[in-house]
Amino acid sequence: MALLLDTGVLYALADADDDWHERARGLLHKRPDVLLVPVTVLPEAAYLIRLRLGPPAELAFVRSVVAGELSIQSLTSRDLDRIAAVMAQYPDIGFVDASVVVIAERLRLRTIATTDRRHFGKIRPVHVKAFELVP
């Protein structure tokens, strides 16, 4: 089964001092799923890693992507339309979070790995009553 990852979990995995680090690591050790990441999440995660942890950490993140540790999910034109609709319905949700929602909907995934309970907890996806947010 596939697990969709948001920026916060990717950052937490990179930063051993992050409050979510152990929970994120534990989740991935318990769930040997295919790790899906929307293409929109990559620059946001890379930016945060570089800003807070430095260029070597960002390079390590990029190398993990190159090595195929993450399955990158592209956006379709339909996805872009739905992203706009999600952003209009939930004004607190930005483009990146909306893209995570839309890819989860398209792939009919119930679970999102995220540290962002505030935003994702509000969303009512089209395919399930609510997302299961982990870790």
CATH superfamily: 5'-nuclease
Number of domains: 1
How confident is the prediction overall: mean pLDDT? 96
Strand content: 5-15%
Biggest sheet details: 5 strands, parallel
Would you give an account of this structure?
The structure is a single chain. With 135 residues, this protein is an alpha/beta fold. It has one domain (2-134): 3-Layer(aba) Sandwich (Rossmann fold). 54% of the residues lie in helices and 13% in strands. It contains seven helices and five strands. Strands 3-2-1-4-5 form a five-stranded parallel β-sheet. The longest helix is centred in the middle third of the chain and has 13 residues, at 41-53. The chain is globular, with a radius of gyration of 14 Å.
Helix and strand arrangement:
Elements: E1 2-5, H1 7-14, H2 21-30, E2 34-38, H3 41-53, H4 55-66, E3 71-73, H5 77-89, H6 95-107, E4 111-113, H7 117-120, E5 132-134
Helix pairs in contact: 1-2, 1-3, 3-4, 5-6
Short summary:
With 135 residues, this protein is of the alpha/beta class. It is 54% helix and 13% strand.
Which keywords apply here?
single chain, 135 residues, alpha/beta, Rossmann fold, 5-stranded parallel beta sheet, 7 helices, 5 strands, 54% helix, globular
